[in-house]
Amino acid sequence: MRIAVAGLGLIGGSLLRALDAAGHEVVGFDADPATRDAARAAGFPVAESLAEAASGSELTALGVPMPVLPQLITELAGYDGLVTDVTSVKGPVRDLVRAHGVGRFVGGHPMAGKETSGFAASEKDLFDGCAWVLCLEPGETDLGDWLTLARLFTGMGARVVPATADEHDAAVSKISHVPHLFASVLAAQISDDPLAGALGAGSFRDGTRVAATRPELTAAMCGGNRRSVQRELHRLIGLLEEMSGALDADDPGTALVPHLRLGAQARQAWPATPGEPATIPAAVPALLELGRSGGWVTSVGDGEVVALRPESGR
Amino acid sequence: MRIAVAGLGLIGGSLLRALDAAGHEVVGFDADPATRDAARAAGFPVAESLAEAASGSELTALGVPMPVLPQLITELAGYDGLVTDVTSVKGPVRDLVRAHGVGRFVGGHPMAGKETSGFAASEKDLFDGCAWVLCLEPGETDLGDWLTLARLFTGMGARVVPATADEHDAAVSKISHVPHLFASVLAAQISDDPLAGALGAGSFRDGTRVAATRPELTAAMCGGNRRSVQRELHRLIGLLEEMSGALDADDPGTALVPHLRLGAQARQAWPATPGEPATIPAAVPALLELGRSGGWVTSVGDGEVVALRPESGR
C-alpha cells in the first residue's frame, strides 16, 4: 500500500526508510524545505504539502513532535485514509483526535531513539526489535485498522505491544519520564562539586546519561504526561524516604537490605526472556491482556496473531 | 619494594596483578584457601597468613570489604610498614585506624569495579585511567607515606585524587551511593507492571543498571556512609518535589525547563576535559586544593607532583 510519512526527523525519516526497505510505496513530507531536499537526495519521493502526501495514500504516519500534532490533525480533516502518530504520550493524542473527529486513527509509539536527531540521523533499522505500542481503546479503535498497522510494523521487525492510551502513559512515566527526572537531579549534584565529578565512574555515567537530553524535550515529554509522572514521582519519593529511615537503624547495612531486594530482583530479571510463540485470537480483550502481561505481537494472520510473552509472565 | 596484598577478590587480585606488572615484588594472602590456590596457580607467591605476608613487606594493602577490615587492622598491630585499604567509605576507616593506633596508614579508594567479582574476575589493567582517592588528613597523614602510595598508583596508570575522608564520603554519596538507591526504586517499578517492563528501553536500561547489584553490597556501602547519603537524598528529594510542583503549572512543558538546565549542563560537561599538565608543590594544602578543583596527580617527582585539572575548572 502507499504510505505517507509527514515529519522526516529521526523517527519519521527512519520510518520512511524502513517502510521503503519493507517494499512499500512511500511518500514523504516535511515542513522544512532543507529536510525535503535531504530526503529527495536520499532517493525518496517527497511531496510539497501534507495534503499532497496524504492524497492517494492509504495510511498517513505523522512523525512530528506533540506541539505540532494539532495543526496536522486539523489539516487532515476530510482525509479518509488511516492515520497514526509516533509521539511519546498517548492520552493527550487520543483526546485531540476525539476533539477533532479524525475518521480513522490508531495512536502509536515506537520505543526507539538515539542521542542524535534529524533526517541525517535516520536509519532503516532503527525499529528492528524495538517495542512499538499501538493504542487499542475498547469500543473506539477499529480492530481492522489496528491489525493493519500491527502487520505493517511487525513486518519491519518491531515488537507490537497492544495497550490503551492510559496504560501506555502510566508505563512510560515509569520507564522513561521519571528516569529522566532522576537522571537530571543526579547529574546536577556535580555542578558545584568538581571533586565528585572527578570521582564519577560507571554508576554515575549510566545513571545520568539521559540528563544530557535537551531540557525542552524532557520537559515537553513529562509535561504531556504530568499526572502519571507526578503519581509515580511521589510513590518513589516515599520509597526513598523509607530507605533514608532504614539508614537510621542501629545496623543500617542490614536494615537497608529489604528495601533493595525488589529492585535487584526486577532488574536481574529484565529484559524478560520470551517463551515459545503462541497464537491468540485477534480480538481486543486477548490483545490487551497480552500487553498487560508484558507480551507483544510478532506477526498478524487471519483472525489471529502470533504472540510472545515473558517465560515467567503471569 | 615488596608489597603484600591481603584479600584477593576483584580489587585485591587486580592490585596484585597490576603491581606485579609494574615490576614490584608482591606477595598475596586470602583467608579462603581456594582463592590462595587460584592465585598460586596464576603464578603469584602467596602466604599462609596475613602476618607472613606483611612480614618483610614495606607496604601492606588490604583488599577486603569493610566488615572484615577491623580484624585485619587488629592483626597488624606492631607492624611497622605502611598500610592502605581500598574500601568505598573512608570516614569509618579513618576512625577505626585512630582507635587501633595503626602506625602508618593512608586510606585509599580506587573508583573501579565491574559486575563480576572474585580473583577469577581480577585483571591487571583494572585501574588503568581510574580515579584512586588517597586520603590526606591535615596534621595526621604523613606526607611522605602519601607520596609513596601516589607514586605507586600513578605508576600503574591510576589518576590519584587527594581528598580528606569526609570530602571523599560526601563526593561518593553523590556519584555512587545515592545513584544506587535511585536505580533500585526505578527498577522496582516494573516488578508488578510487566507492560512497563516490556516497554523499557535505553533510559530504563542505563538508569537501573546498578540496581542489579547484590542488595547486601549496596546496603553495606550506603550504611557505612549514612549521614552523607541521607543528606544528599533529602536534598534531591526536595528538587524532585520542586519538579513535581512545576508540572502543576498552566504550561508544565515550559515550567519544568529551568529545573532541568543545571543537570543537562553538568552532564554535557562531564567528564571534564583536562587542561595542560602542571607542576604543583607536594604539600598538603596544594594537594587538597587540587582534589577540590576536580584535578588529580599523574606522577610524583622530588618535592613536587605533576597534576591535571579540568580545563574550565575553578
Fold and architecture overview:
Chain A is built from 14 helices and 11 strands. Chain A is globular and about 70 Å long. In chain A, β10 and β11 form a beta hairpin. In chain A, the strands form 3 sheets. A 5-stranded parallel β-sheet of chain A has the order 2-1-3-4-5. The first copy, chain A, has a 3-stranded mixed β-sheet with strand order 6-7-8. Chain A folds into 2 domains: 126 residues, Rossmann fold, CATH 3.40.50; 100 residues, 6-phosphogluconate dehydrogenase C-terminal fold (Orthogonal Bundle). The two termini of chain A are 37 Å apart. Chain A is α/β, with parallel strands linked by helices and 314 residues long. The interface between A and B is large, with 105 and 105 residues.
